[in-house]
Amino acid sequence: MKILFSKALFPNILGITIVLILSGWLMVQAEGNWVFTIAIILFEFLVISIIFMQFYNKYTRPLKKASKTVNEMIRGNYSARFYNGNSEEMEQLSKNINKLARNMNEITIQEQMHAEQLTSIIDNMKNGLVLIDEKGYVHLVNRGFLEMFHGNEKQYRGHLYYDVFQNEAMHDVVQKTFLYEQPVKQQFKNKRGLTKNYMEVIAAPIFNEHNMIKGAVLVIYDITELKRLEKMRKDFVANVSHELRTPITSIRGFAETLKEAQHDEKAAEEFIEIIYKESHRLQLLIEDLLELSRLEREGFQLEKEDFNVKQMIDAVLPSLEQKAEKKELNLATSISSDISIHADVEKLKQVIINLVDNAINYTPSGGDVNLKVSEDEHRVHFSVEDTGIGMEQKVIQRIFERFYRVDKDRSRNTGGTGLGLAIVKHIVEVHQGEIVVDSEVSKGTAIHVYIPKD
């Protein structure tokens, strides 16, 4: 009964009741006058029709519009709106529907943004990403995966993993993930044309709320650079061990010989001289290793200052001239006296000493070694040229590697550590400079170093 007295129905019911009572009273007064009775009935019909039309316009028609707006929202059109102020109830309904539409629109926009962000992150990952469902079908491959293994997305999505993954290691990882229901990691080689890359794949199972496996996600890393660095580390350790073992073995051997047996004075002096040379070589090796370590240390800072290049070279030239003279080489220099530079003077001294010393070591007696310095507007050009044994083109790229020697016997006989050019390269790089090598077998080598003036 409460509904009859609601704001929406009570005025209409009251109006109809009044019309019926009034028309009933008039019909009693008519006393059989059919014309008057018909007129009263028509009047009742007209009044009741007006009441119902008003009710229709005020409630029924707005409800139809509200229903249409809700249907638009169900179809995903959250920009649809409903406005009606015919009654307090319809006005409140329109506000609620429009508020719901705005909230749904905001949620949809946020979801789209999150989806776009997630897609952008997945596609811009350098690593490969694959999503596989519990039946083995591929649902997602990102751009990183396609770059690693080639092909396009259509070749993978919607296909069984063992039909589209060519590498057996990938099959094995997926199978173990589903079998053991725990993360699995494995490394494998991936051939791309003539190149061979090392990959690491980590697969992890995906579970639903009932702890049932629903699929697996695979992340593939290109670890080629890590493998290269690991090989360099192993080679470096092996080379250091070998380079340290050789002088230590000589020192120990001759020391034991001196200790255990009787020798004439001349033989003892020879042994002591060998021990001295090997210990000096060991000292040079350790100093070069420490210098390389300092240059490669993160945060290494050059101690730059303004200085005259000729004065810097004159300070190191006497010892180099003495070594060249002992080997019967002609060491010539061509340096302008007014060239200045803002750089680390001690480090550039090392560059000059190592380059000229290297040229002397690899140039036969009677040959020439030339040190030239020139400048342009922005850089100072240091050039060391020799008429030595030269190198093949394929060797040039390796001479800056640690412990690499073009002629191993010659380098060891001259006391070289195999680290001189590696140190030169690092010093030039920390100065933001450039180093260029020209060489021809049996004709000689020219090494050009360009250092910015400031």
Structure commentary:
This protein has 454 residues and is of the alpha+beta class. It has four domains: 2-105, no CATH class; 126-222, Beta-Lactamase (2-Layer Sandwich), CATH 3.30.450.20; 232-296, Helix Hairpins (Orthogonal Bundle); 305-452, Heat Shock Protein 90 (2-Layer Sandwich), CATH 3.30.565. The protein is 55% helix and 19% strand. The chain contains 13 helices and twelve strands. A five-stranded antiparallel beta sheet has the order 2-1-5-4-3, sandwiched between helices. Strands 7-9-10-12-11 form a five-stranded mixed beta sheet, with helices on one face. Helix 2 (34-74) packs parallel to helix 3, helix 7 runs antiparallel to helix 8 and helix 9 (309-326) packs parallel to helix 10. The protein is elongated, with a radius of gyration of 46 Å. The termini are far apart. The mean pLDDT is 81. InterPro entries: BphY/WalK/GraS-like, HAMP_dom, HATPase_C_sf, HATPase_dom, His_kinase_dom, HisK_dim/P_dom, HisK_dim/P_sf, PAS.
